[in-house]
Amino acid sequence: MSDIIRLLPDSVANQIAAGEVVQRPASAVKELLENAIDAGANKVQLIIKDAGKALIQVIDNGCGMSVTDARMCFERHATSKVRKAEDLFAIRTMGFRGEAMASIAAIAQVEMKTRRHEDELGTLIEVDGSVYIKQEPVATPQGTSICIKNLFYNTPARRNFLKSNLAEMRHIIDEFQRVAMAYPAVAFSLHHDGSEIYRLPSSALKQRIVHLFGNNYNERLIPVEEETSIINLKGFIGKPEFAKRTRGEQFFFVNNRFIKDPYLNHAVNRAYEELLPDYNFPLYVLFIDIDPSKIDVNVHPTKTEIKYLDEKSIYAILHAAVKRSLGRFNISPTIDFNQETGFSAMITQMAPEEIVQPAISFNPNFNPFTTEFPIPQNNAYASFSKNYGGGGLSPSSKNWGSLYEIAKQESHEQHRLGFDKEETQEISIPTVKQLMQLHNRYIISQIKSGLMLIDQQAAHERILYERFILHLENRKGASQQSLFPQTVTLSTNDYELAKSLLDDIKSLGFEVRDFGKNTLVIEGIPVDLGSTNINETQLFEHLIEGFKNSQQDLKLDKRDALARSMARNSAIKSGTVLGQTEMNTLIEQLFACKTPNFSISGKPVIQTIGLAELDKKFDKL
To answer: Which residues does residue 257 pair with via DSSP β-bridges, in sequence order?
Structure first.
């Protein structure tokens, strides 16, 4: 039998390596931007066409390359950062593997122009699928310009697995944001299909965050800074009230390299304990500076994971620093001295009024076992009578403190909450015929076999979800015009997402138009939300955030995710007081749904408790 093991040709080996290094256009963007940073550039331009499928171009004003280096950079394992194995534990640059350019050249058509400061002429190199097409001198500015055309043109299977242009562009923006955030002193710009998406001047970190995510982030940031013998920590965290339901705005940088680390993420989230509701995630942009010999960055093909020698200490430092910053923010709020005069004005207005010390009336002769005694006429009783209306108790009734009178008073209060009384005698306990609200969370109704409990929030979510799905299918969502149109400014990613969803959003009943520069104008909201008190801007932001969360967690289609998000954000919440008419309407609409028994999260909406079960609890069986 002949030998069957052969060495792969370089072109095939490069394509295999490209499968690890270049998974999508955003992967190539990351590698090129990191190379520009390593070259010492202070100005970097990124130009994209067709979400990176047609063109990815990065232009920098870095140190450039010589003729030999320009040719060598396309060879596998060619790098200027590593000379010996020990260098792997002293890396402070972004790239070091020497696989990026060779991998990209294996699956695309690449044109590179580069020139060093001391050279009069630069070098032009063209590579097509690992094959050198051209190399010649060329007049070009100092630095390097790399064009990647027709990515994955010779690997059609990989190209077919790419997502929509919107999805791929969001990944590119994510990579751009990470590099731009790590190097705020470097000026960056991003153009897509001829439109300028970002123009970021050289700035401090806080200004860079604001430029990336919007001016409204200026008030959301809390500084974090801690210096220890193990790590130096700096950056910003978000105020708890601005937390979101997706993890998109969480950034860790170790020695200016973006990383993903669930362990350190847990340290930050623990610091927010009791400050955030479940499934809400805070914003943070945190930079950890550590001795490179104490970490290993060579553990993942995309270089987004790192191993630490002393991760428990880093966890403790991170948790303590974030908690301290949150404490300072909560304990020491900012004082606006321009508004201090408001206190004196308030005191002046209150001064003429006489301050009366509260008094408590009581009857020293009170005996709970007597049948008659006069009721004290105090403010508490007067307030009760005023609030609970007529038809109640007379001050000259039976003993206020007796069980008789307490039972009768409960009967009166239950009637106000939605019970009917069958007054066969003076102290009859009311029979439940109507609906009752329990702790403003559940609706209780008597049924033939016992009683029924309905989760009011889950029920309303189910009703709205099925209604919005119908609107999206029929494109007939009714809208009510806003008296004052509201503008909403989104992050670049959310703005691009909202633009792609505009037709479906309008089908829900929103009247929205594009205003440019990451801004939309809301001129109307769905009629179904007429009774809601939520701000239109907040509602729209929550809609986009909820859509991302639904798609990310459940992998739902676009319309289903949009309907779920809308239902969750506009449904009545637990704690909302409902009247009899509202409860009856809610139940009628619930039982008209296709799936009334289950919430949009798949949890029960209705629970029944039979008489047999109740009898068992009272030991009657």
So the answer is: 254
Contact 66, 60 (CB under 8 A): no
Q: How far is residue 98's CA from residue 95's CA, in Å, rounded to a whole number? A: 7
CA 568 – CA 600 distance, rounded (Å): 9
Q: For the chain, give me the number of helices (H) and strands (E)? A: 18, 22
Residues of the chain above pLDDT 70, percent: 73
Q: What is the Cα–Cα distance from 539 to 551, expressed in whole angstroms?
A: 18
Ranking 120-134, 144-158, 278-292, 404-418 by mean pLDDT, the lowest is 404-418
Q: Of the given ranges (369-373, 458-462, 465-469, 584-588), which has the lowest mean pLDDT?
A: 369-373
Q: Order the strands of the 511-516 sheet from edge to edge.
A: 479-489, 519-526, 511-516
461's tokens: 């979510």
The tokens describing 171, both together, are: 């990944």
Q: What are the respective helix, strand and coil percentages of the chain, to the nearest 5?
A: 40, 20, 40
| Residues whose CB is less than 8 angstroms from the CB of residue 286 and which lie 6 or more positions away in sequence, other chains included | 224, 233, 234, 235, 236, 237, 251, 252, 253, 268, 318
Contact present, 240 and 272 (Cβ < 8 Å): yes
Domains of the chain: 10-202 (3.30.565.10), 206-331 (3.30.230.10), 356-430 (no CATH), 455-607 (3.30.1370.100)
β-bridge mates for residue 520, sequence order: 488, 514
pTM to 2 decimal places: 0.67
Look over the chain and give the mean of its residue pLDDT values, rounded to a whole number: 78
Distances (CA, A) of 43 to 19, 48, 556: 30, 17, 40
User: What is the pLDDT at residue 301?
Assistant: 59
Residues 6+ apart with CB under 8 A from 493: 170, 173, 174, 248
Q: Tens digit of pLDDT for each residue in 133-188?
A: 999 999 999 999 999 999 998 888 888 888 888 889 989 999 999 999 999 999 99
Beta strands in 180-283 (DSSP E): 187-192, 195-200, 221-227, 232-238, 250-254, 257-259
Residue 143: strand pairing partners: 115
DSSP state of 602: S
Please count the residues of the chain: 621
Concatenated DSSP letters of 289-325: E--GGGEE-TTSTTS---EESSHHHHHHHHHHHHHHH
DSSP 108: S
Which neighbouring-strand residues pair with 44? 60, 188
In this prediction, residue 562 carries a pLDDT of 85
Whether 43 and 186 have beta carbons less than 8 Å apart is answered as: yes
Beta-carbon contacts of residue 275 (< 8 Å; ≥ 6 apart): 240, 326
Chain position carrying tokens 């860790």: 252
